[in-house]
Every structure is written in C-alpha cells, then in structure tokens.
Amino acid sequence: MATTITTPKNSLCSALENASHQEKGSHRKHKSDVVDVQCLMLANMEPSFQIQYEKVAAYDIYRQLEELFRKEARNERYDTVCALVDSKLGNGQAASPHIIKMIGLVDRLNALGTSVSKELAVDLILKSLPDKFSQFVMNFNMHKFELSLNELHKMITNAETNLGKTKTSTPSVLVVQNKKKFKKKKKFTGKAKGSSNPKAAGQGSTRKDDKCHYCGNLGHWKSTCMKFTDDRKNGLTTT
C-alpha cells in the first residue's frame, strides 16, 4: 500500500516538554517523513550531489537546490525564448525539421513554467516561414483555421510539396510550348524541282498524247522511237 509523504516547507522544531500526546505523535511522524524524503532525494541525485547533501535535512536540500537551479532555469528560459522568436526557415531548407524544432521549444518553455498559448505558437511558426509561403499564410489567416501544432506541421509540409511541384512543372510547360513554335526543316537533296526522273536534265518525261515527229504515233518522242532507231541503224535515215 502506497504511503503519502508530506514534505515540510520549514525546519522542524523540537517538541515542547508540555506538548500533548497527539502533538508529540505528529512530531515523530514528521521527523520520519523527513528521513524518507531525504532518502528519496538522495537516491535520485548524482553521486557528487549525494556526497554534498548526505547530512543535510530534506527541507534544506530542497531550499538550496531550488535556489541553485532557479538561476539556471531563468537563463534557459531566456535562451529558449530567443531561439523561438528568432527561428527562421531558410530558402532551400526542409520545413518539417524546422517546425518540429519550434514545437520542441514551445514544449520546453511550458515545462519551464512559461505558458505559451497555442495561438501564439501558431503565429510564431507562420512568421518563421519564408516569402514563398506568403499565399499559404494569407489563406490560413483568412480561413481562421483552428489546428493543433501537429496539424499545422502537416498542413505546411503538404503546402511545401505542392509548391515544389508547381516550381518543377513550369519549365516543362515552357519547353512544350517552345517546341510547337519550331517546325522541322526538310532535308535538302540537291535535286532541282521536278527532276526526280533519273533521265538526263532537259529530257523530260513523255505523256500519252505526245506525238512522235518521225513515225507519227502517240506516246513517245523521236528520240525514243524504235522505228527511228532501227531505220538509222539500217542506214535508211540519217536524221
């Protein structure tokens, strides 16, 4: 069964000789509680502190440690406040580690006894974002979102992802648009227009209605006339 120990906030004085039986019993109980508290305090100390406070009463240990660490807590609180207010997300840096660090600073201030409201913490985080989040911050304030710090963290990281997609997609669109402006030039073959016929230039091509001036038939010229070729070979004509 657990025992509740009451820690005295002032030094115990000796019971008076004429104290009642109940008062003496209460005094003995408090002395026993002081020993128990002293043992618990020493058990949770580092060895160097155990040696230093081994013979010091529980209340005196409490008073001395409170005075010692109150100064350190004051300095830590000041440093934490400065770190929180001065936090800035640099261009090119990931948002997630930055926001997690700021949430940790808020939690630390609350642990040190300095209460930081959720609204103030949200404002400080939004203030720490760079200019590329200006549209996000404006929309956030316009809609007056009521979010926890973890929900805000998720929303900012999603916005960061969308901003990255927009930035990388713009050059691709420009490239596609630029490609449409240029047409592929036809390869120059060196041949004159209408000279695809392998025959010599100037010879041209015959048509069905072309008439041979030698034999009078249609569909060929004198230069390709078979009768003219045979007659010239046989010496029947010289022209």
Protein traits:
239 residues, mainly alpha
Description:
Helix 3 packs antiparallel against helix 4 and helix 4 packs antiparallel against helix 7. Among the domains are: 51 residues, no CATH class; 84 residues; 32 residues, no CATH class. The protein is mainly α and 239 residues long. The N and C termini lie far apart (141 Å). Helix content is 56%, strand content 0%.
Shape descriptor reads rod-shaped
Overall number of strands = 0
What oligomeric assembly is this protein in?
single chain
Q: How large is the count of helical segments?
A: 8
GO molecular function, one term: nucleic acid binding
Region (Disordered): 184-209
Protein name: CCHC-type domain-containing protein
Entry summary:
The protein is an all-alpha fold and 239 residues long. It has 8 helices and no strands.
SSE blueprint and pairings:
Elements: H1 21-43, H2 47-52, H3 58-85, H4 95-111, H5 118-127, H6 134-143, H7 149-181, H8 226-233
Helix pairs in contact: 3-4, 4-7
